[in-house]
């Protein structure tokens, strides 16, 4: 028995940029232990597993890092939708996460979009140890998203964002309430509306190459600042990546380009997939 496997670069128009994203399309039920083992084997930021469709267009999806399962991943969802639209010929796609959140996908030219709920911002008292681990002394503003367990810190400019060099061991020890820290600023140029970087050592990703799901929070934050519904973000990681964001009344669409690097099959014994 075999399952289709694709390695994509998401959130980039160039190969070997953006976020490397393994997507596995399963023929049946695969146990969690095997999915964890495969994610470790691929050693990518996130590996997605897409189960057979529950109906004509609803696909269960799960996400794993090298340390275990996580509830959401924007770049892996976009990668899975790209394959379903462009290689497997699907016309209508809705993903269903383990938490039963439904995410609708659509195409607009070469960009694949995923619709997310609008997640709210809440206050958060940043531990001094966390700021020291980031090497940040001052920030313009900060807030927290409970659904994503993510802390957002706005800095003054792109230079400050690019110069941050976290102490990841110290960062993980600074708090147990956060699974991701996003630093960001308004863009200095005209090509992008804002820039960001994402650090997730709590889930085995020191710096995420490109981050998707956090824009379910950032879409409306930057809309309020820029007075624009359609935004473009640049993730200033070493690989770099471009994210398209559309702020809707009750949600956010997150979009990006993708390209397939590897296409193949994963071989299974009969007792692994049933």
What features would you describe in this structure?
With 274 residues, this protein is of the alpha+beta class. It folds into two domains: 2-112 and 257-267, Diaminopimelate Epimerase, Chain A, domain 1 (Roll); 128-247, Diaminopimelate Epimerase, Chain A, domain 1. Helix content is 20%, strand content 39%. It contains six helices and 17 strands. The protein has helices at residues 32-42, 74-86, 128-134, 158-163, 168-174, 215-226; strands spanning 2-10, 19-25, 47-50, 58-65, 68-70, 93-96, 102-108, 111-117, 141-145, 150-154, 180-186, 194-200, 205-208, 230-235, 241-247, 251-256, 258-267. The chain has a 17-stranded mixed beta sheet that branches. It is globular and about 50 Å long. 43% of the residues are buried.
Number of helices: 6
Question: SSE string, helix = H, strand = E?
Answer: EEHEEEHEEEHEEHHEEEHEEEE
CATH topology of the largest domain: Diaminopimelate Epimerase, Chain A, domain 1
Question: Class by helix and strand content?
Answer: alpha+beta
Fraction in beta strands? 35-45%
- Distance from N terminus to C terminus (CA atoms, Å) equals 10 Å
CATH superfamily of the largest domain, please?
Diaminopimelate Epimerase, Chain A, domain 1
Helix content: 10-25%
Averaged pLDDT: 95
Shape: globular
Q: How many domains make up the coordinates?
A: 2
Beta strand count = 17
Our Rg estimate from Cα atoms comes to 18 Å
The biggest beta sheet, please?
17 strands, mixed
Spans where pLDDT lies below 50 across 5 or more residues: none
**What is the top-level CATH class of the largest domain?**
Alpha Beta
CATH architecture of the largest domain: Roll
């Amino acid at each position: 028995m075999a399952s289709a496997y694709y390695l994509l670069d998401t959130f980039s128009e160039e190969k070997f940029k953006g976020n490397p994203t393994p997507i596995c399309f399963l023929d049946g039920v695969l146990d969690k232990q095997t999915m964890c083992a495969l994610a470790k084997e691929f050693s990518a930021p996130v590996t997605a597993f897409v189960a057979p469709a529950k109906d004509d267009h609803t696909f269960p999806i799960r996400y794993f890092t090298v340390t275990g399962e996580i509830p959401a991943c924007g770049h892996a969802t976009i990668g899975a939708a790209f394959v379903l639209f462009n290689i497997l010929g699907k016309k209508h796609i809705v993903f269903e996460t383990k938490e039963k959140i439904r995410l609708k996908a659509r195409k607009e030219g070469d960009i694949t979009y995923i619709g997310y709920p609008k997640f709210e911002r809440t206050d958060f008292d940043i531990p001094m140890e966390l700021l020291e681990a980031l090497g940040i002394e001052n920030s313009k503003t900060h807030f927290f998203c409970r659904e994503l367990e993510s802390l957002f810190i706005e800095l003054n400019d792109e230079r400050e964002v690019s110069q941050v060099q976290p102490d990841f061991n110290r960062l993980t020890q600074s708090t147990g309430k956060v699974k991701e820290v996003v630093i960001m600023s308004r863009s200095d140029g005209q090509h992008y509306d804002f820039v960001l970087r994402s650090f997730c050592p709590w889930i085995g990703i020191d710096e995420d190459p490109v981050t998707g799901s956090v824009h379910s929070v950032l879409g409306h934050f930057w809309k309020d600042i820029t007075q624009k519904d359609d935004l473009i973000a640049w993730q200033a990681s070493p690989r770099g990546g471009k994210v398209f964001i559309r702020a809707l009344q009750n949600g956010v669409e997150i979009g990006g380009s993708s390209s397939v690097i590897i296409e193949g099959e994963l071989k299974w014994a009969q007792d692994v997939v049933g």
